[in-house]
Amino acid sequence: MTLYRDALLGKSDDKIVSFTSSIDEDRLIVNEVIEVLIAHVHHLRSEGLIPYEVGDKALKALRELLKNSDELFRFKVEDVHEAVEVYLMNALGVDAGWIPLGRSRNDHVATALRLKTKRLVVELIGEMLKFREVLLKKACSYLEIPLPLTTHLQSAQVSTVAHYLTYIEEMLSNYTSIIYAVLDVFVDKSPLGAGAIAGTTVPLNRLELARLLGFNSLVNNTLLATGSRDFICVVASVITSLAVSLSRIAEDFIIWGTPQFNYIEPPTTHLATSSMMPHKKNLVTMEVLRAWGGEAVGHLAAILSVVKAVPSGYNLDLQEVTKHLLKLILNTIEALTIVRDFVEGTEFKEETLRNEVYKYPITITDLAEFISVKYGKPYREVHRELALLMKELGEFDMNKVCNELSRRLGISLEELHRAITPENVLKARRVVGSPNPELMLETIRNFKAVLNSDYDRYAALISRLVIPNEY
């Protein structure tokens, strides 16, 4: 059945309907579509724009439909909006003809999409908050456990596990702030009542419609309300960036879980075995998470590629971006739950890590800074001397470096050894944000305060997601 086109164009070919239909993808937003229509009918009834008894019957039918929305997918129709109308015609007869007054699929689908996006993004925020909580708790247990950090994947400087974990937490904190702002500026605004593109002569109160659905404000301009998918582009961009960042974290854990590094003991639930090689323990969850970063980029590229060529106003191209957005959000929520579970169950191998920081010359930078500051030598000169010395020795043995430096510069060997001991190096670093255990503990306290504030904001959002029961 093609309800909207029959009068003007006649019946359509089934294969054409199948090609242009969004009914399968509409399963993801069906509840929101019904809720938006409930708000619309309630408003029409309240304003006396339709007979009260018709509105009453329609609301009862829609509430029942909300409990069993699968009924809609029995119909061969263009989309879920048409399916709802067919359902109401079957339930109400000619009275169903009152319901489309003052509405268009354009403003209704835009409203349902924003409502669904808001709910999913709030769920995503909740998962980020839980992950951040795990990271801070875990960091407290690893304040003094060293961790060699790399640049260019070469051993660079000594850090701590706590420093690494709070790096992830601060990154997620930044994303939390950005997503809160995106919700407020782009998503949490109602398009309902905007009609197809330029409004309606039906005297709808758009602010009241927004209130009924729990939106914070309006998309004021009716063209922007129905014809724009900027909110999808922005949400997708931020979430893709988050997915890419998580992919990099997964790569770290994959590397650290190899026998060559052996920095971590992952939870066995995150490992898989080989079908051929009996010894293999593959970190498959992090591999899939790493792959998701690339897939997310593909979904974002699809969204932007579709939207870029669409003229202002609603065009059917726009229905094709919905599946990419929802896939992006849902998969990233799942990724966050997986990586949180992984981090919570992973142990960092203290003995291995303590041996690692002595194996490579990762405190030589700190030695150069010590000599420059204490003995008044230009840093570039000390840097060059140490580089030449290591080249001359032909190896990176820090004890031999110190012995030769002590002989050449007349500095106490004991003093040089103290300057390169990883524990002393960490304590000597007093700049904000460094892995100094004392400063790190203060950082964790500050991050916890920010996290608590973000939890309060999240709780307020959750309370606003509950649509009033008054209708």
Give the N-to-C terminal Cα separation: 31 Å
Output the structural class. Answer: mainly alpha
What is the CATH C-level name of the largest domain? Mainly Alpha
Assess the beta-strand content as a share of residues.
under 5%
Overall 3D form: elongated
User: How many DSSP E strands?
Assistant: 6
At the fourth level of CATH, the homologous superfamily of the largest domain is: Fumarase/aspartase (Central domain)
Helix content: 55-70%
CATH architecture of the largest domain: Up-down Bundle
Q: Major β-sheet, in short?
A: 2 strands, antiparallel
Radius of gyration: 30 Å
Major beta sheet, strand line-up: 1-2
Overall mean confidence score, pLDDT? 93
Contiguous helical run count: 19
Low-pLDDT runs of 5+ residues are: none
Q: Oligomeric form of this entry?
A: single chain
CATH topology-level fold name of the largest domain: Fumarase C, Chain A, domain 2
Describe what you observe in this structure.
With 471 residues, the chain is mainly α. The chain folds into three domains: 6-101, Fumarase/aspartase (N-terminal domain) (Fumarase C, Chain B, domain 1, Orthogonal Bundle), CATH 1.10.275.10; 106-201 and 219-350 and 446-465, Fumarase/aspartase (Central domain) (Fumarase C, Chain A, domain 2), CATH 1.20.200.10; 364-420, no CATH class. The chain has 19 helices and six strands. The chain has helices at 6-9, 14-20, 30-46, 52-67, 80-92, 105-140, 161-187, 206-212, 222-227, 230-256, 284-308, 319-345, 350-359, 364-375, 379-393, 398-409, 413-420, 422-428, 437-465; strands spanning 146-151, 154-160, 189-190, 217-218, 264-265, 347-348. The strands form three sheets. It has a two-stranded antiparallel sheet. It has a two-stranded parallel sheet with strand order 3-4. A hairpin with a 2-residue loop joins strand 1 (146-151) and strand 2 (154-160). Helix 6 (105-140) packs parallel to helix 12 and helix 11 (284-308) runs antiparallel to helix 12. It starts with 5 loop residues before the first helix and ends in a 6-residue tail after the last helix.
